[in-house]
Every structure is written in structure tokens, then in C-alpha cells.
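Q: Could you fold this chain for me?
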Amino acid sequence: MQIQTKMAFLSGLVLAAMGPLVSAEPLLITLKNHQFSPQELKVPAGQKLQIKVRNEDPTPEEFESPSLKREKIVKGNSEITLNVGPLKPGRYPFVGEFNEASAKGALIAE
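A: Sure. Below is the predicted structure, expressed as C-alpha cells.
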């Protein structure tokens, strides 16, 4: 029993040293007709996230989020990958800077 307890303790130390977990699969946000889909995406707080932004429009867009500290051009008919987090609980808005009136969205970390 003592060996199992020590192994569990050591496993916990290793996991703690590794830092926050990364989400298993990238989250997908699609841009079409100058609108993000989904417009709001709930994500786990305290985890590193990988987000794919797929632009299905023929024109480029700039994904911008001051709260996520990310700004990146997405060429027409292409995609980018963003690494963010770990995020504290809260709302993290983002926009398509070239079409701010219609291209709005947010990550909601819970």
C-alpha cells in the first residue's frame, strides 16, 4: 500500500510540474460571410487551448483580441492556429478587424 501511495504522490508532482493541461483537440471557429461561427464558445478555464480559425471567405480577415493578446491575419480560404491560455474564468471578446461591425465573437472561460 505504501508503494501505491508514493506512486500516486509522485504522479501528482509530475502533473503539477507539467503545468496546465492542453485541450485534447483544437477548437474550431469558422469565418463565413464576415461572421464568426460559433459567435460564443465556452472553453475550460485553467487550460492551454489550441484554436483553429478557418476563413471560408475569399477575402482576408484579421483575427484580433486584445484580451487574448492575439492578432493574426487569416488569408481568404485558409486557416490559422492560435495557442492561448491558460485562461482565468471570464469573457474574452474577439473581432475580425476588417469587418468589425459583423465579425464579432467571444471565448467564455468557465
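A (continued): Confidence is low (pLDDT under 50) at residues 7-22.
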